[in-house]
Amino acid sequence: MLSLQNYFDVVGLSISVSILLTIKKIRKIDTLARWGGEEFILLLPETTINKAVVLGEKLRERLSRMDISNVGNVTASFGVAEYNSGDTVDTIVQKADDMMYQAKSAGRNCVRYIENENKYFVLEIFTLNSLGLIK
């Protein structure tokens, strides 16, 4: 069975570009990047957790409607975390990553998040899930 990571390595650029173009309908101040194999990271400055969760749901729905040649339908699991005073890059990425793994554990194709009182910025990490490709 082919893993999504191996698929990215084989067809890599074309599928990554397709997915990024689908997702790219975000604000100019947001930053989207591939974060390793099948994971992507989305930095959302000046965003509340509620707005980030809504965006995650919209992106998840948009991705699930994509039909990628030789793959079929792809779903995504999102983890969302807000910046807390004192967080480092590593701690906020870890929190979002933990939420993403909670989303995967909850059956995939969903959004999980940590909420707090700060409104500095929100970080979303998501991974693509594709039936028949994930080991």
TrEMBL record:
The keyword Transmembrane does not apply. Its EC number is 2.7.7.65. One of its GO terms (molecular function) is diguanylate cyclase activity. Residues 1-116 form the GGDEF domain. It comes from the Bacteria. Pfam families: GGDEF. Transmembrane segments: none annotated. InterPro entries: Diguanylate_Cyclase, GGDEF_dom, Nucleotide_cyclase, Rev_trsase/Diguanyl_cyclase. PANTHER family: DIGUANYLATE CYCLASE DGCM-RELATED (PTHR45138:SF9), REGULATORY COMPONENTS OF SENSORY TRANSDUCTION SYSTEM (PTHR45138). This is Putative diguanylate cyclase YdaM. The gene is ydaM_1.
